[in-house]
Protein: DNA methylase adenine-specific domain-containing protein
Organism: Streptomyces glaucescens
Amino acid sequence: MQDNATEVTAAGIARLAGVGRAAVSNWRRRHADFPKPVGGTETSPSFALAEVEAWLRRQGKLAEVPLRERVWQQLAGHPEGPVTALTHAGCVLLLIHERPTVWLDVSAGSDERLTAMLPDALEKVITPRFGGTPHEGAVRIPTGPELGPSAPLLRGAADLAAELGARQTFEFLLGRHLDANPRQYTLTPAELARLMADLAGPARTVLDPACGTGALLRAVAARPGQELHAQDSAADLAALTAFRLALGTQAAVRAATGDSLRADAHPGLRADAVLCHPPFNERNWGHDELAYDPRWEYGFPARTESELAWVQHALARLRDGGTAVLLMPPAAASRRSGRRIRADLLRRGALRAVVALPVGAAPPYNIPLHLWVLRRPDKAPAQPEVLLADAGRFAAEGRGGPDWQSVRDAVLDAWQTYDRAGTLPERPGLARSVPVIELLDDDVDFAPARHLPPPTVADGAEQLTDVRARLGETLRLTAGLTPPPARSAPPARWPLTTVGELARGGALVLRTGGNGGHARVPVLTDHDVLAGTAPSGHLPESEEEAVLTEPGDVVVPVLGGGAVARVIDDATAGAALGRNLVLLRPDPAALDAWFLAGFLRGTANNRQASSYASTATRLDVRRLQLPRLPLDEQRRYGARFRALDEFERALRLASRLGGQLVRGMYDGLADGTVTPD
């Protein structure tokens, strides 16, 4: 059943039909019977999904709206907002997951019967699954009238669950919501969450007092009789985390809403582990009203030290010997206002390790965040030392994030060796265990970079020698690839066609990037295409079928206004296509891939196919033009375009190696590991 109240924006229509926004604007101008707006604003109108779907089908532009897209549009256009819709969907998906026969009985019949019977059915699942009464936790059972507008969405979500499973359906919908609203949420990357959970070690009782979307608790390894406790000041995040955990694990889930510092929902908890990604740099964290709180065992945090309040809250919720891992801003390791608390954490053996992460590990991506590993002291350490580690060397170029496998291997090996022995032999440039007495000076600054020895002189010199040799080889290659002198010719008057016409004629297949996919699939992002780098992104985990690249595909970014097209080679093949990318898969019997990519990069070609907003330029790939030429002539042009691409890649590599050599020489001369002779 289609919901007539569900609204869809022009962007949603474009996604339904697999076209660009410009095409939707053209339809509105050229077709008098195009559905009229039913909401939104004059500059950003919304339309009734049912009317749009019917119009697209009449025009032959849509055979059938995919079930996933229909459910997503029902959720995104819900009259009470997508968060309410997602919460209602979570309730039903949990019912389907726990008691599928009850759902079959409740959903039989009319929507009125469904919404009347559903609250009682939900109570029988939500109360035992989340513990206590529904009014005490993060999940509130909606009433029948509240569920009324959601009935079509709930039936659609159930149909989708029959295809994907309840957990995968919720992950798909949540992933799409988070991806559509990136500025509303501060997310903890899955690889970082996994590292933090591994540092904490096996745990039966785990708490996240600032749970967000639940990434940290989802990373915890399952154990029999496990209890996962979560709290967040945002009611919607606490509820969504509860559903994610209940659908993805057999553990008892105890989620609550409220500010953990001001209104702790778990005051009596003594957990085996606490994982936390707290909000950074908060001035209004409760400094005035919490002055005499018993949690401040290590000192009352200054107004500017909200992170040290979270550190002490985590320690207060641990059992003796329990471990806490917190993501911290680097300034928390050195600000003068926090030095007394840091000193007490060191003296009493509560702080066990500080790990500097590479730039790009988590938001904000432009600074190297720290991990603090703490342990509630059960006895004074015999030889008090603190592990300091710096994984900054594993940062990746561009926005792709660090080399997580190398980060994991280096950090976990150092931590496990130190945790067993209480000390760690020095690892230059990477890690060392520092006696506490060395850190208890006037600053109590334990930023790892200030206490780690630099890489050995031999290693540094050998690395720079290797970079220099590679640079010389690349420069020689670049000189050999330099294009020959250009010969002038009068402008060609070829008959032209467009990408849209070629797609309709079957000469190529056009696909757009997705918003979800199977976990751990490397994703080719728009930045990777622009920078000419390897796939570096990740898609939100879902069962949505990702578009995978194949050799000979041509990938084009649609945002930014640059004339760029990339031909997929064997090294890049198999990556998932990211957002804001369009993939063109030419028929080799009709089109040469390099010929296609080369003409798509023409500046004038891109200019005539672009539309402009106040802050961005969007490319309508279907309007890009290329000449109608015989295949042999295409290949002649394609060979020249391919040679230009090789020259461009060589220039980029030379630039990267040159920058690396210059940085290394400056650093080596400055720290004495390289002589000036």
User: Anything to note?
Assistant: The chain has four domains: 7-63, 68-180, 190-450, 496-628.
